Structures are given as C-alpha cells and as structure tokens.
Protein: M20/M25/M40 family metallo-hydrolase
Organism: Erythrobacter fulvus
Amino acid sequence: MGKTILAVATAWAMVAGAMAAPAFAQTQSSEAAAFQTSLRADLDGQYDQVIADLVRITETPAPPFKESARAALVAQMLRDAGLDNVTIDAEGNVLALRPGTEEGPVFVVSAHLDTVFPEGTPIKVTRDGDRLFAPGIGDDSLGLASMLAWVRHLENKALATRQPILFVATVGEEGAGDLRGVRHLFTQGAYKGRIGAFLSIDNTNAGRIVHAAVGSRRYRVTFNGPGGHSYGAFGIVNPMAAMAETVRGIYAIEVPSDPKTTYAASMVSGGTSVNAIPDKIELQIDMRSSHPADLAKLEQAVLAAAETAVAGENAARDTKDGTITLVAELIGDRPAGMTPADHPLVQTAYTASQAAGFKARLDDSSTDSNIPMSLGIPALTIGSGAGGGRTHSTEEYLNIGRERFVAGLSVGLAVILAQTKVRPR
Amino acid sequence: MGKTILAVATAWAMVAGAMAAPAFAQTQSSEAAAFQTSLRADLDGQYDQVIADLVRITETPAPPFKESARAALVAQMLRDAGLDNVTIDAEGNVLALRPGTEEGPVFVVSAHLDTVFPEGTPIKVTRDGDRLFAPGIGDDSLGLASMLAWVRHLENKALATRQPILFVATVGEEGAGDLRGVRHLFTQGAYKGRIGAFLSIDNTNAGRIVHAAVGSRRYRVTFNGPGGHSYGAFGIVNPMAAMAETVRGIYAIEVPSDPKTTYAASMVSGGTSVNAIPDKIELQIDMRSSHPADLAKLEQAVLAAAETAVAGENAARDTKDGTITLVAELIGDRPAGMTPADHPLVQTAYTASQAAGFKARLDDSSTDSNIPMSLGIPALTIGSGAGGGRTHSTEEYLNIGRERFVAGLSVGLAVILAQTKVRPR
C-alpha cells in the first residue's frame, strides 16, 4: 500500500510541475506517463465491473424529472463501492461525501442522472463488436460508472486525499431540467458555499476539456390579440404579424462570433382555424453565449425586437377589438461562465488527457459546470472513455475497446488525485 | 284548390311587377302582402311539425365528411313529405326532383347537411322561452326543415310549377368540406348543365339576401430547411425566418376595400425543441374577395411574397447544410361570383322579404351559392326564420317565436313560387 501512495504522490508532483511549463506546449514527462500507466493497470482490473455497471445504470431509466429510480440505484452502488455517507437531497441529487485529511472546501466530482429520453422509451443495452448501444449509455451513464470506478480505486487502495471529495449524481442536466440539480447544489443545498472546485464527467471523449460554459436564455414569447373572423374582422391587429416582425427583428441582430453568440427562433404555434385571425401565437427563442455580457446584450435586443414589433402592429392595424399584448416568459436560464485556460484545474486535465494518449482540446459547452463557472468557482467538464456517438438519439453508442476505454477512464481519476492531493490516511 | 292556385298566380304577378319598380325603393303592394299572408296561414299550420323536424334533424349529427346519417334521414323525410324521386348521389348529396309542367332547366332549392361540429359533440336540443338551443340548429337544420315545409306546401296543395324543382341537401358546405357537395352537383352530377337557377337557404334571418359570393383561396405553405443545433449550427438558414418574412410580405399587400378583399395569416406551427433550428414551419393563409380578379391578384402577391422570402433567406444565411424550399398547397378554393342586384331572383327575394316584414338587405358571404355564381348561373342564398345567434359555437340558438318565425319561413316559399311560376297541374 505504501508503495502505491508514494507513486501517486510522486505523480501528483509531476502533474503539478507540468502545469508550470508553458501551457499545453510541453510533451508529457515520463513520470506522468508512468503514473497514468499505474492508474490504467488498476482500472483495467475493473473493466468488467465498469461494463456491468454501465449496463445496469443505463437500463434503469431516468427520464427528465423522473430520475428517482436511477438515483436510488446509484446511491446503493456508491455505498457498495465503499462510501458510507450517501444521501439524496431535496432536489433529487445523490450526494456521497468522502472526507479528506484536512478540513476545507470540498471538491465535487459529478455526473448527471437524467437522460433526454421520455418515459416509455425502450432501453436495452446491446453490443456490436467494440460498441455498446443504448439511449443514454454515454450521456451520462458513462460518467456515473466512471465515478463508481474511481470511488473503488480510492477505497480499495485506501487512498487518503487532503481535500474532501463530494461525489454527486445530479438531476436535471438536460433540456427542460435547466440544471436544476447542480443549481440546487450550489445555491440551496447543504454544501452551498463549501464547494471549492467542481468536476463534471459528461462526454465520451477523454480528450475534450470543457472549460467554458455556454450560457443560454430561453423564452416563450406569447403574442395575444383579439382574434376574429378572417373576412369579417379583416383589418384588426394580428398577433401573427407581430410574431413575424419579431422573428425578423431577431434575425437582423448582429452577434459576435468570438465569443460565439447565437440565437434561434426555434418553435412556433398558434391559430385555431384557417378562416380565423388568431388570438394567440407562441414563439420560443433560444439564445446562447459563453460571455455573460454578450448574452445579456443579445437578450435585451431580442426582447426589444418583440416590443417594437408589438407596438408596430398596434400602430399598423385596427385595435378597436383589442390590442396585441406581449408576455415574455423565461423558460430556460443557463448562466455563462469560464474557468480560465491557465487555471491549474484546466491544465491538470489537459496534461492528464495528453498523458493518456488523447488529443486534448479545450472546448465550450452547456453542462452542469455552467452553474459553478457562473459563480466564479473553478469548474470543468471532461469526458471519460474513448468516444461514442449519436448522442440524444436512440441509436446512441459508446466505444468500449478495452485499452482506449481504460485510458479514457484514467483521465478523470488523475485529475481527482491531482486536485485533492493524495496523502496517506 | 282552384282558389289557392289563383291566389298564388296572382301574387306571382304582383311580385314580378314589383321588380320593374326602382330596385328596393318601392313600398310593398297590398297584393304582395296579401299573398304573403296566405302563405303564412298555411305555414303556421305546419309550425309544430317544423319544430319537430328541426329537433329530429339537429339531433342526427352531421360532422364534416360524415353527413350520411342525416342524409338518410332527410331523404326519408322528403319522401314522407310527398316526393317520390329521392336519391343520394356519389358525393352524398340528397336529391329530390319535383317535375314541372314544362321541360327545361331545373330550379335548385337547397340547404346543407353538414355542421362544423366534430364527431362526438353532444347535441341535444333544449328550449328556453322562444329560443331553441343546439349546435347546428340554425346552421343549417333550419334550412333543411324549411325545405320540408315548402315541399309539404306544394304537395298538400297539389301546386304545379312550370319549372321543375330539384330539392337538394348538400354535403361539405362548411370549412374543409370546401363546397364539395354543391361542386359535385354543378360539375359532375346528373344535373350538370341542367340547372337554371339556384337558391340556398342558409342563415337564420329572412331579411338577409346574399347575392355576392365571397371567394376564397386557402393555402398551406410549408417552409422546409436543413434544421440543426441552435448553437452548433448557428448561421444556417432557418425556415422560421422565411415564414416570418412571408407574413410580413403579406401584411404589406394593399387590397381594395370595395370589393372587399382580405387576407389572414391564420395558423402556424413548427419546430421540435427550443434548442434546435427547425426543419419545417407550416403556415396557413386565407384570402377572400367577391371579385375573382382581385382574389387572383391577391393570391399572386401572397405566393410571390413567400417566394421572395425564401430566396431572401437562402441569400441571407448559410446553405451549406441545405436550402430553404417552399411547398404551397391549395387547401381551400371557393370561387367568387355575383348575381347582379337587379336580377329578378334578387329582386323577388328582396320584395318577398320586405313583404314578410323583414328589413331586407343585400349581403355577401361564402356559401353553396359560390359555385353557381362563379359559373354565371343565377344563385342566391337567403335566410329563413327570424334570427338566432352564436353560430358555429355550441351555444348556437334559434328564435322560434311563432309569428316572426312563420313570417321568416314564408320568404323562401314566396321566392320559389315566383321563380317556378306556379300553374295548375
């Protein structure tokens, strides 16, 4: 045991040392490579277990807002892996604290429970060669199974970390979940104000390091009007025209390409009959940017476009039966944020990814890390494993070729060990 | 019997004579009034029967495209009223020929079988004072029940008309039915080319004389595009933007107010998720005018607006994943037309309506008469009865206060007798 701890401690120094070199330019040291090799050897021994966990987790459905069955399973699996302080919080997140040798802020290691697949979607894992197929197998069963492997690594080797680690399986990462789990964790839960850094495992490529949070603001904009007979009431204001002018106004907005800032008029519905002027049109709009100020500026421009369109319609046509009114309802809010590329957490992940043989690259995305990044708490979302595809479709798959898969698994573990500073217990 | 026939023949001369006077300015002659009084006396004797027929017809549902149960009932009721040549044509119309004393073009007297109410709508006639309540009671059960009363009048009095009368209960007058019944009658049925004039009974006010057919052209316009992720694919063409520009283009079209010409962007739908650029947006558009050339011009402008919008969108944004394409599908086609205000049929109806004590007025609408009017065949849609309301709603009602109701019933009969030139059989 002493030997392993020494090796880990030495490797930590290697990884930490690498961080001092010009960012991302250095070649990996032989010591870091040796460290990765030792981690991989252990994780290789867990390969069959990880695959079995993947299947078990995946086949326990976790539709949006209905993650409780999978939460209960993961809580039990965390206990089975050796943790004895496992709870489920008020929002539905599974929390498992592994104490450190020192007091202080906790390091959160997380993956999300929910999938995008609605209740009733058939979910059965199938294998074809080196691929496992099933909805959600990579997004994010892999993150959950990886976390369990790492817990077993720490427990089986009785590794002590300086910093406490809070393992979290979150609810509501996808779509309408709107990051409700991680939001609760940081703003209402028992660990509010006590989280020092955050790591989310949420894609299938251990080379992808998401250090920038694409923020989004999503609106349902409803245009209400009097409505009427298409012939008899011709000439009165039409919410359809106000909606159209709004879309046109949005698509005339100029947005920066760096930081990438985007909008989409994505969904629309309204009207009851072809021969009636509608009394209501609903429009959904998505706006994104990794830069909060750009996102706020865009949002302001979009809402102004809607207001201008409504005022224009009320001025252009007859309002004797009523005016067009506007209700803009925020239906999605993912704050933007960033962990600087030169932050130790980013550099550690980058180095570990390279050491494991991955073509490391920094990226941006919208993940659970949006919340801590927006709060200025160092956070990162990285991949585990060695690729997959067709995410969010029922043809989703995961590559499980043993060597690369295990190499992918090792990256997150290396980051955890570096971040929490392994010390003998 | 001879006396009645004489009275009718005399009254016809009165009505015909009134037509020579400056249109709509003359006061009713005492002879015409006496004629109306005699008709009312007979119809008053049928009052209880008409109310019973109304209830029976109304409570036999006739949803759009599912009029066969009511058709069978009305066919039997026409037989019971004394006609022996009753058939149902290929489209579902009920046809009952009452031969004239002379050969020649037939005079069609019609009402429509269908209602706007979907299958399963609860239909039970209730009475509150002088009102009968039920979906469809006025539109157009009243027309059908009126027709039956007039057949009984002709049969019971053994009145012979010069011109043959074809009583028709049509299918598909409402909405998506798109006048399919009357269209079949004039363009494909056994009486194609043999109809000299057409009278439709289709509103609850015997003072309303619809001599102008508001034509309509209705389109479902589908904007297709590649679609994609709202953030990842930002910059590609969006069918939503093309739809919006189309609506904007339409609402910039100037249309004449006389003849009244109108448009409405009435229904819209599309998009699958707030975070996706949609791959399809559907827009429904209604256009109307009583002037065929104005309607055609409007249609051309609307379709040009859509084409311009699509071309503009393909020029404005990236088409690497595909372009926006347009499918414009005609989903409604009611031809415009008019029977001139000084046509004998219009003047007869106007005079008869005034003689019965109604405030006669000429109007335009979209009814079964659209088809003959568009073909240049004299046609008219008039009301029967003495008012009602909330048409096309489940709170529809009909005024059945005896005296005014019977007066309303008499108007159509007076028109028929005048048109077909009653002669002893």
In short: Confidence is low (pLDDT under 50) at residues 1-27 of chain B. The CA atoms of residues 267 and 327 of chain B lie 16 Å apart.
